[in-house]
Design a protein that fits this description.
Among the domains are: about 110 residues, PAS domain (Beta-Lactamase, 2-Layer Sandwich); about 70 residues, no CATH class; about 160 residues, 2-Layer Sandwich (Heat Shock Protein 90). The chain is about 60% helix and about 15% strand. The chain is α+β, with helices and mostly antiparallel strands and about 500 residues long. The strands form three sheets. Strands 2-1-5-4-3 form a five-stranded antiparallel β-sheet, with helices on both faces. A five-stranded mixed β-sheet has the order 7-9-10-12-11, with helices on one face. A two-stranded antiparallel ribbon has the order 6-8. This is histidine kinase. Keywords: Cell membrane, Kinase, Membrane, Phosphoprotein, Transferase, Transmembrane, Transmembrane helix, Two-component regulatory system. It is an enzyme of class 2 (transferase). It is a multi-pass membrane protein. Pfam families: HATPase_c (PF02518), HisKA (PF00512).
Length: about 500
């Protein structure tokens, strides 16, 4: 089919083959847009009620007019029927001039009056059309049989008819009185009103559609600006933020989105700083080892004492490097969502005594009093190894950053839901401006003193991470040259989170 076509024409044919699905997809995409949906909602909820009112008002107006004419006609029919109550029969009434009176009344009120006897024969007709004829009418028959009044509206002829029984002066039924009136003028008036309201309706619909279009366009303009900003952020301009404009929902969305981006920026900066700190901390011991090794290599006939001293320094730096790596690996393992938690019921009183007994020699070197206070036996569901690391780090820090002849008090308590561990010392304290950062990785208040004591700046970060893994909290209160208090709160019963359950299942 395409053998005789040139390459460029062949491309055009292929393009047109693909254009229809693309066009359909574009139309559906437009229909799904918030602007189009808003326009359709505004149009429907404004135009539909308008059409409903336009239809219902004439209907109720016409019904009300017909109802009023029925009531008026019944009253007039009753008045005419009352005139016949003074006679013995319909013939006597006609001789007395009731027919002429009925004709005048009919002409004056613009209505047709017929007198029908009990044999359903029209005795007299104000229009003289059907006098002497027999009438078969449901309302006439019902009025004769039940001796009650009946009214009705005939849509085909546009007339209202009221039929009332006629009684003589002896209260005997002589026949019925049929009174009819043409109400076609109501339909004409309704048509005229509908025509005029149709013009008004068309104008209002045009105005409403224009208003809906303008509102949807303004709303769509706000959305487009926000979406453009989101696209720029997705393309790498992470410093941009959404403007807090538009309706309440858009403002809430913009605030929450900006908050997420701010947190992401802080996290990104924290990661960059963490990488920088890791590089620095790992590089420092290596640099020290290299300097010590170069010093030995550059000297000849190094005394054995100096050689041993330098080698001991190298070993110390290697130990420091190893401790940093171990702490980093601990943090990496705990950062994983599926980080293993070996939960078991543990007697915390015994665990705390074992930890403090192991740390007592370190305290004795600085003549620090290490006191443990337990208010009641406490058994909780925890990861024993990880929680031992929490207590060890907190107590060891309290000893390391304490004054000579100081004290460290450790307390254990519990209520019906949580257990509490408090570690209080009489140490150097932490400056107020640094207290918000003590749980950050590699953050150290006094870097020089931390290196002297062998600190890596990861201890409190590990402590906080382990406590969070136990669904607990840690709070700190510190004053310079007074001391520091850490308070840990952890649930007695461990509840596995959904993330941990998914990690175990996977």
């Amino acid at each position: 089919m395409f053998k005789n076509l040139k390459p460029d024409r062949l491309k055009i044919v292929k393009f047109h083959k693909k254009s229809l699905p693309e066009l359909v997809r574009l139309v559906f995409r437009k229909l799904k847009s918030a602007r189009v949906r808003l326009f359709m909602i505004l149009a429907v909820f404004s135009i539909v009620p308008l059409y409903f009112v336009d239809v219902m008002i004439p209907y109720y107006y016409r019904s009300s007019m017909i109802k009023d004419r029925k009531a008026d006609l019944q009253t007039k029919a009753a008045v005419v029927a009352g005139e016949y109550a003074d006679f013995e029969s319909l013939a006597e009434a006609e001789k007395a001039g009731m027919y002429n009176q009925m004709v005048r009344y009919s002409a004056f009120e613009t209505m047709r009056i017929r007198v029908i006897n009990t044999n359903f024969v029209i005795q007299s007709d104000s229009y003289s059309f059907e006098t002497g004829k027999t009438i078969i009418n449901s309302r006439v028959i019902s009025a004769c049989n039940s001796k009650k009044s009946f009214s009705g509206y005939d849509k085909t002829t546009g007339t209202i008819e009221t039929v009332v029984p006629l009684y003589n002066k002896n209260n005997e039924l002589m026949g019925v009185l049929s009174v009819g009136v043409d109400v076609s003028e109501i339909d004409k008036f309704q048509s005229e009103v509908s025509y005029r309201t149709g013009i008004i309706r068309t104008a209002l619909v045009t105005i409403l559609l224009a208003g809906a279009y303008i509102i949807s366009k303004l709303y769509g303009k706000t959305l487009r600006k926000q979406f453009h900003t989101v696209e720029e952020i997705a393309n790498g301009h992470t410093e941009k933020r959404l403007s807090i404009k538009g309706d309440t929902q858009l403002q809430d969305f913009a605030r929450n989105f900006n908050l997420i981006m701010d947190k992401a920026s802080v996290l990104d900066e924290s990661r960059q700083e963490f990488v920088s700190n890791v590089s620095h901390e790992l590089k420092t011991p290596i640099t020290s080892i290299k300097v010590l090794a170069d010093s030995l290599n550059l000297q000849e006939d190094v005394p054995i004492e100096l050689y041993k001293e330098f080698m001991q320094d190298i070993v110390n730096e290697i130990d420091r490097e190893s401790k940093i790596i171990d702490d980093l690996l601990s943090l990496v393992r705990m950062d994983k969502p599926s980080g293993a938690m070996n939960i078991s019921s543990v007697n915390l009183n015994e665990l705390m005594e074992i930890v403090l007994k192991r740390l007592k020699p370190i305290a004795q070197k600085k003549n620090i009093e290490l006191l443990f206070e337990s208010f009641r036996p406490v058994v909780a569901e925890i990861d024993e190894v990880k929680f031992t690391q929490v207590v060890s780090n907190l107590v060891e820090n309290a000893i390391k950053y304490n004054n000579l002849d100081g004290w460290v008090h450790v307390a254990l308590n519990a209520d019906y839901q949580y257990f509490y561990v408090r570690v209080e010392d009489s140490g150097i304290g932490i400056p107020k401006e640094n207290q918000d950062m003590v749980f950050e990785r590699f953050y150290r208040v006094d870097k020089a003193r931390s290196r002297e004591t062998g600190g890596t700046g990861l201890g409190l970060a590990i402590v906080k991470k382990i406590i969070l893994m136990h669904h607990g909290t840690i709070k700190m209160h510190s004053e310079e040259d007074v001391g520091t208090t850490f308070t840990v709160r952890i649930p007695l019963n461990y509840v596995q989170s959904d993330t941990e359950q998914e990690g175990r299942l996977s």
